[in-house]
Design brief:
The chain is built from 12 helices and 5 strands. The chain is globular and about 75 Å long.
Length: 286
């Protein structure tokens, strides 16, 4: 399957309303199985070479399908090669550091793929919708809500851009995905959680409170997408109403990006290579 990732990549100023939330690819689940096996092979070589890492950032409204996407896209990849971090409400320890600290210490090592399920962008998203949360960080310059204006969040975005530039300069491939879910589909998924007993545990009354702030979240997403999609760390807007298709699109983009680096497995040192036959004989003659 070939897809034009330019269709989803943000390379100029956008409006979220211009992006489709639904796209359906025939046999998406079958195609994903094939692609995920390719991803596994590429990651094995990437791990062996040990020069690059990859950071995949996932953002989206509640029920946009982040958890199941991670499960289905990466289930064939060697467990040693993928690390998933889900960032929840900051802990007391995390609040004693700057807002990027907990994300920095979770970055993937060279050779590995790191997946951030919710990311450092929560610091210019949830905290912008709920500015009172910022007071928990005890920032000296923040004394009142008036201090938490657009300039405050735009300054944070500038620091995030600098953070990601440092990562890419150091050998981390950064890809960021916004799972673009429609409000109607979110409603259907929340109802499903309520209607199916085995899904009840996923439901939280807080989901309904956040849903009432849908327009505010969309505004904040649009602003951060426009200000933080850079050539070294681009954002992709993925239609998320159809889960199998969303997974397939993301996997295809990840593989296309990884292929650019033409990873090579390291060769044995010449001294060891010259003794290969001797080593074989030792083992065969045990």
């Amino acid at each position: 399957m070939k897809m034009s990732k330019g269709k989803y990549k943000i390379e100029s100023k956008i409006q979220l309303s211009d992006f489709e939330t639904e796209e359906v690819v025939d046999d998406a689940e079958k195609k994903l199985k094939k692609i995920s096996k390719k991803l596994s092979k590429i990651q094995d070589t990437m791990y062996a070479e040990g020069k690059y890492s990859m950071l995949i950032c996932l953002q989206g409204m509640d029920t946009s399908g982040k958890d199941s996407l991670i499960r289905e896209v990466f289930k064939n990849v060697n467990a040693r090669g993928v690390e998933v971090h889900s960032f929840k409400v900051p802990t007391e320890l995390e609040l004693k550091h700057d807002f990027l600290w907990r994300h920095y210490i979770a970055l993937p090592a060279k050779g590995k793929i790191g997946v951030f399920n919710r990311t450092h962008y929560e610091n210019v998203l949830v905290t912008r919708v709920h500015p009172n949360y910022v007071f928990g960080e005890n920032i000296p310059s923040v004394k009142t809500l008036e201090d938490l204006n657009d300039d405050f969040y735009h300054n944070r975005m500038d620091r995030i851009n600098a953070f990601e530039k440092h990562l890419t300069d150091s050998g981390t491939i950064v890809l960021k995905f916004f799972l673009n879910l429609s409000k109607e589909e979110q409603k259907n998924r929340l109802l499903r959680r309520l209607n199916l007993p085995e899904k009840n545990w996923k439901f939280s009354a807080g989901d309904l409170k956040e849903r009432k702030l849908w327009d505010k979240y969309q505004f904040c997403y649009e602003d951060l997408l426009n200000r933080t999609s850079k050539e070294n760390a681009p954002w992709y807007v993925i239609p998320a109403d159809d889960k199998p298709t969303a997974r397939l699109i993301l996997a295809d983009i990840v593989i296309a990006e990884l292929k650019k680096y033409n990873f090579k497995e390291p060769t044995l040192p010449a001294k060891i290579q010259a003794q290969v036959e001797e080593f074989k004989n030792q083992l065969n003659n045990e």
